Amino acid sequence: MGTSLTEVGSRLAGIMFIWGTIQQLFPQILRRRIETFWNRLDNYFYPYVEITIDEFSSDKNNEIYSHVNNYLSTKSISNDAKHLKAEKFKNIKSCAVILDEGESTIDEFQGAKLCWRFHKETFRDDSQGRNSLPIEKKSYSLTFNQQYREIVTEKYLKHVTEEGKAIEFKNKKQRIYCNNNSEDDYYTRWYGLWKHINFEHPATFDTLAMDPKKKEEIKNDLVAFSEGKNFYSSVGKAWKRGYLLYGPPGTGKSTIIAAIANFLNYDIYDLELTSVKDNLGLKKLLMETTSKSIIVVEDIDCSVDLTGKRKKKKKEEKDNESDSDSDSDSDSDSDSEKKKSKKLTLSGLLNCIDGIWSACGQERITIFTTNYKEKLDPALIRRGRMDMHIEMSYCRFEAFKVLAKNYLRIETHDLFEEIQRLLEEVNMSPCDVAEHLILKNAAGGPEICLNNLIQALKEAKEDYITLLHPSLLIHDFKG
């Protein structure tokens, strides 16, 4: 064995000597032809190409590495890989099972077979002294036949990246943000303009008390929006959508926002306009929002004076003021104009949600809520800004059946007919109806809750009739 290895070493040395001699003695053109022949010979015996993807590139996180990590987390389980490891990070819903050190897995794409292998090297940084912590260098290598080079470089890697992004988006924990109103520049530089916590609201469209046809219409619109990247690009519009939720208090405006966020798996940015100083501050806030998110402005009519309605001018004073007073008033008017220019204005808000600044992030939804739609300026809620107007009305029978299923786990009951008749005559919010359906006594059954709701509806009806006709006696209507 030792003799054979010695012979192989001596032959390789001889080949290298001959190659060095050829490089010195033969013309450059001939050397190139020999190199071409040698490469063909090498490719014939080893026709594989290897691409290495390191975790870090130029001391920065390599995004492709994380996408590959996500992609392989769904591939390695279904193949022959025996050595795997599970990882779970803070902002990820579920754990990811990925390849362990030295393990490999096979993937196929458009007829090409590709081999992924995970590598990990551990070493110490001698420049940090004897007590330096070990450093891990992680990477993936992708090996494939060179005949598939074009497919891999132009299609497969793009496919892996897109799939990895989709998996990361699906597994990430949702967040809800609120704008940071701190005036400390150091604080905002360090922590940003938004604060966040994990969003864990359980609302879904299945549990939403709303007419099923209206729910289906909203869901179809959301799906069309989320899948409309190519469409929005083809028509030259920013990939955004606006919804106006309006209706009396307690009708579920906040709940449907949570249901939309859970349906699309989007983050929520709860924008408090009263803490925004001016138009520039609003632009800075929107620049820090991410794609695949919902920007919410609740009670838009109460946030700031953005109605845009022109007020009637005051009557001119009869007495002419002195020159000095006029100068003083002029200065006062000038100061007033300067103050107005530093405030958040309707035009500034419109520019951010529908102007050129609306394209600072893709795949975003803007939602306004209000109890009084008629108070809003028409320019704020026109189509193109608020594309879909959704009325959140009082509880009717279809919405009641959803609540009965959610709270009482029943889909029909003998008392439903009477409840349906009363709901058509009385305006009661879904929030109030739900409160009467909560089982406050473990020994009580659904019938107790339904009777409580019927009694509450009858009392509401009596109060309404008494309000319209005070001369009538309440007991006349109890039968």
Automatic annotation (TrEMBL):
Alphabetized PANTHER family for the sequence: BCS1 AAA-TYPE ATPASE
UniProt keywords, alphabetically: ATP-binding, Hydrolase, Magnesium, Nucleotide-binding
Family: Belongs to the AAA ATPase family. BCS1 subfamily.
GO process annotations (BP): response to stress
GO MF term (any one): ATP hydrolysis activity
SMART domains xref list: AAA
Cofactor: Mg(2+)
Residue spans of biased composition, Acidic residues class: 319-334
Ranges for region Disordered: 311-338
Classification via PROSITE patterns: AAA
SUPFAM superfamilies to which the protein is assigned, alphabetical: P-loop containing nucleoside triphosphate hydrolases
InterPro entries linked: AAA+_ATPase, AAA_N_dom, At3g28540-like_C, ATPase_AAA_core, ATPase_AAA_CS, Mitochondrial_chaperone_BCS1, P-loop_NTPase
CDD domains: RecA-like_BCS1 (cd19510)
Gene name, Swiss-Prot/TrEMBL: AATP1_0
Gene3D superfamilies in the cross-refs: 6.10.280.40, P-loop containing nucleotide triphosphate hydrolases
Catalysed reactions, semicolon-separated: ATP + H2O = ADP + phosphate + H(+)
Protein name per Swiss-Prot or TrEMBL: Aaa-atpase asd, mitochondrial
Residue ranges of every copy of the AAA+ ATPase domain listed in the record: 239-396
